[in-house]
Amino acid sequence: MNSNDYIIEIRNISKSFGDKCILDDVSINVKKGEFVTILGPSGCGKTTMLRLLAGFGQADKGEIRINGEDITNVPPHQRPVNTVFQRYALFPHLDVYENIAFGLKLQKVPADEIDKRVMKVLKMVSMTDYEDRDVESLSGGQQQRVAIARAIANQPQVLLLDEPLAALDLKMRKDMQIELKEMHRKLGITFIYVTHDQEEALTLSDTIIVMNEGKIQQIGTPTDIYNEPQNSFVADFIGESNILNGKMIKDRLVEFAGHEFECVDEGFGENVDVDVVVRPEDIYIMNKLDGAQFGAKVKSCTFKGVHYEMFVETDKGYELMIQDYNAFEPDSEVGLIIRPADIQVMHKERTCNTFEGEIVDETHVKFLGETFECLPQPGLEAGTQVNVEVAFSKVDLIDHPEEGMLSGDVYFLLYKGDHYHLTIMTDDGDHIWVDTNDIWDKGDLVGINIAPQDIKIVK
Amino acid sequence: MKRFFAQCYIWLLLIVLYAPIVFIAVFSFTESKVLGNWTGFSTKLYSNLFTGDMQGTGSLMLAIENTLVIALIAATVSTILGTIAAIGIHNMRGRGKQAITFMNNIPMLNPDIITGVSLFLLFVFLHISQGYVTVILAHITFCTPYVVLNVLPKLTQMNPNIYEAALDLGATPFQALRKVLVPMLKPGMISGFILAFTMSLDDFAVTFFTRGTVGLDTLSTYIYTDARKGGLTPELRPLITLMFVGILILLIVINIRNIRNSNNAAE
Fold first, then answer.
1. pTM here?
2. What are phi and psi of A197, to 5 degrees?
3. Where do the H-state alpha helices sit in B42-181?
4. Distance of CA B125 to the CA centre of its chain
5. What is the per-residue pLDDT for A120?
6. Nearest C-alpha of chain B: how many angstroms from A56?
7. Contact of A237 with A231, CB cutoff 8 Å
8. For residue B180, what pLDDT is reported?
9. For residue A3, is pLDDT > 70?
10. Distance CA A442, CA A451 (A)
């Protein structure tokens, strides 16, 4: 594709606040007229990215182009973009008309033209006859409509929306989603939409950019993102999913949950550790074991409106979530089938913890800012730089942070059918990944210990 | 019974507080030269005050004029300086912000006499001849912190995106300041201005030390000199009464404004 087709080109943008890295080498291209959603949990850098596009703040590194023009250092009032803020940010001392006309008056647009445009955008957001109202007398939904009208009155090439519906109630949010989509179609301009609500992203977008910890996890259409998540973070964040450890035995054959399954993925190699995702609605459940790939016992069954949500324990002891239109009684034996096309195989991001370390003496190694005891390391002199590997299951978590070598908190957790895979953020901001059968909650403070025999030193 | 005593206490307190002013006000309606002698009701002192038919009228009127001009200039300049300072402080982060806020509070707690003497020494040290200019500079100095104190809360209440929204819609930083920030900070700026104005009107100690020897008098220094010359000029009684009434009206206006503002905010 010719690069001129892109209205926004973001190249290798990095941004830190203090020593906290918010955006890490992010590159995004946006086509003209596209509805792009940046999706991620809070603190993933999505709002920072939007603010850089609007011009509030400077990137440490990288370049932003709009229409091929470098605008990295252009102040916000000279950029061809307008923003809809999360908390509306209407001017309380001006009425609805004056709020919308604010930008047009600055551009010295003739009065009758301003009149025409204000009426047009008010009609577009279904707020005709509200032009003389005081903005503070409006409801949240109405204020957000005025904020959108104010932004599009300037006829920007790109409209930036920073979680514009987050402050509205559910019903209003649904209505506004439909209206936004309709507005995007009518205006034909590019929308960059930031949200943490995956359903909103799936409903609205042409393209979704999933971000986490300042990095892009996946870019794709809503169906791509849902059906073919590229890693366990995306799979877990978008929709409900069963994420399990698996092994790619050979092309088109994968093993997980203690069974071998045919699948459609190729090119992973033989006997490679992978993550496997199966959506709960993609597991077929039936009363008989004949013709089933494997058996399971229903543990719980909850009515969810359209479907029933069941948790089953498989014959090999894995817990799976299943959604089906039919209810299966708890404690009943069922047979399960997973079709090859419904199995999504993903590369593992990592298979063990790897840290940079330094040998202190024969039986001690320093990494993550602490000195750990390790097995004797003959032939390595003090001061040698080494890599330290620790298996996920060999990291000990304890209740009392002060009793651990390191302390941190549970930052992210993922249930993998028969164990939890935790991401621990240490107090210094380093990550440690842990496999455990114990139940922890997000935000729990933990102490971290690693036994000497579990520290593997790699030169 | 408890309630009765509580009521009595309040009234006693109010009487003690307001008796001197009421005393002056009552005796402004009699002609007696000596305060405390009632020689019959008369509004002659009031008419003297306005027709200028009294001893030393010229210098009294000049003192009033000086007081008002100085207060007006000092309040205007400190409102501008204080608002800019408040915006600056609001945008600071962490320790620096705390330090500056703390430093802003010190001049308000400092006794006037110390502010006066230190400014006097500063002007002498810098060889600035003292007079009108030094008095105005001194008044700006002690008025500005009050404006900062009044404007800062308005900034904290404000949605931080509002200023950005103005920039986003095409306003230059200066236009955003003029068309969005200033109108939103106006209530704080007005109460800051009024406070600065009354602080300046009220001041004696700082003026006394910074007015130099050119014979500049404000109302407070005039009354001080007058009282030392032997007895208070009788016409000062109606003047004090009028000023009290004026300030009272001003305070009532400010209070009504505040009540209305907080009602708006509550909605």
1. 0.78
2. -95, 110
3. 44-51, 57-91, 94-109, 112-125, 132-157, 161-168, 173-176
4. 28
5. 92
6. 7
7. no
8. 93
9. no
10. 25
The whole-angstrom separation of Cα A421 and Cα A414 is 5
Report which of A319, A318, B108, A456 is spatially closest to residue A310, judged by C-alpha positions.
A319
Q: What angle do CA B214, B216, B219 make, to 5 degrees?
A: 160
Tokens of A67: 């229409």
d(CA A69, CA A7): 9
User: Which among B91, B161, B168 is the top mutation candidate for probing chain A, defined by the most A β-carbons within 10 Å of its own β-carbon?
Assistant: B168
What is the mean predicted confidence (pLDDT) over B242-250? 87
**Interchain contact, A106 vs B171, CB within 8 Å:** yes
Contact between A162 and A45 under an 8 Å Cβ cutoff? The reply is: no
- Total residue count of chain A as it appears in this document: 459
The closest alpha carbon to B70, from B123, B111, B131, belongs to B131
CA distances from A311 to A172, A338, A455 (A): 33, 16, 37
For helices A96-106 and A140-153, angle between their N-to-C axes, nearest 10 degrees: 20
How many helices, marked H, and strands, marked E, lie in chain A? 8, 30
Asked if B170's CB is within 8 angstroms of A93's CB, the reply is: no
The pLDDT assigned to A349 comes to 81
Do B165 and A89 make contact, defined as CB atoms within 8 angstroms?
A: yes
Helix (H), strand (E) at residue A345: strand A344-347
DSSP state string for A58-75: --SEEEEEETTEE-TT--
- State whether B184 and A93 contact (CB < 8 Å): yes
Question: How far is residue B220's CA from residue B228's CA, in Å, rounded to a whole number?
Answer: 12
- Name chain A contacts of B184, Cβ cutoff 8 Å: 91-93
CB atoms within 10 A of CB B261: 12
Asked whether residue B200 carries a pLDDT value surpassing 50, the answer given is yes
A chain contacts of residue B162, beta-carbon cutoff 8 Å: 89-91
- CA A440, A443, A447, A450: dihedral to nearest 10 degrees? 70
Task: Give B-chain residues touching A136 at CB under 8 angstroms.
Answer: 264, 267
Q: Whole-angstrom Cα distance, residue A54 to residue A256?
A: 46
Residue B76, token pair as written in the block:
């205007």
